[in-house]
Amino acid sequence: GENVEQHPSTLSVQEGDSAVIKCTYSDSASNYFPWYKQELGKRPQLIIDIRSNVGEKKDQRIAVTLNKTAKHFSLHITETQPEDSAVYFCAASMEAGTALIFGKGTTLSVSS
Amino acid sequence: GAVVSQHPSWVICKSGTSVKIECRSLDFQATTMFWYRQFPKQSLMLMATSNEGSKATYEQGVEKDKFLINHASLTLSTLTVTSAHPEDSSFYICSARSPGGEQFFGPGTRLTVL
User: Fold this and answer.
1) Of chain B's two ends, which shows fewer C-beta atoms within 10 Å, N or C?
2) Is A110 on the interface with B (CB under 8 A)?
3) With an 8 Å Cβ cutoff, are A100 and B98 in contact?
4) Whose CA is closest to B28, among B98, B95, B76?
5) Tens digit of pLDDT for each residue in B34-69?
6) What is the spatial distance between Cα B63 and Cα B48, in angstroms, rounded to a whole number?
């Protein structure tokens, strides 16, 4: 089955810096790669996603890149703000709306 | 956006009792729902896929007789933790697939077994 590895497990940056979180997956049949932000005790919130027919997607300060050949995808957050502090999870699935396999998460801390 | 609710939001029970958690899609019909479990400071682990009108599909290592899933209608799936023990204490989160193919998460249920 699918296995998703995520690095780093923790990331501390200064406000205004960029943050990059990387994930790899094992199943070449996966075609959908979402990123979630989760605050303590709350549900995961989708922040951006990418499908296998696209190499990069951007939404304001957030971007995701996908290298399907190498089976890895990354989340880039620019101009980080303290409110970006949370746990971020990458995930992979066959297609949008199917069962998700999550990475172990990255705790991002943005200090002002 | 679409709304998925869970009930209860938290529950404390004695060891050996059974606990039922409900997951509802409030404004769309969901033929497929998913159940995840999240231990403190860990990731979400897929437990099972719940399909309306048919048996759930369980992930490897998840005991189907212990975690009973019923998806009797297009807007409701239930997870029953039978004979709960302290090691079952966790955050249980459901998600529902909308007709458009998006997946929406419920707010989660925190289960504490004493």
Assistant:
1) N
2) no
3) no
4) B98
5) 999 999 989 999 999 999 988 999 999 999 999 999
6) 10
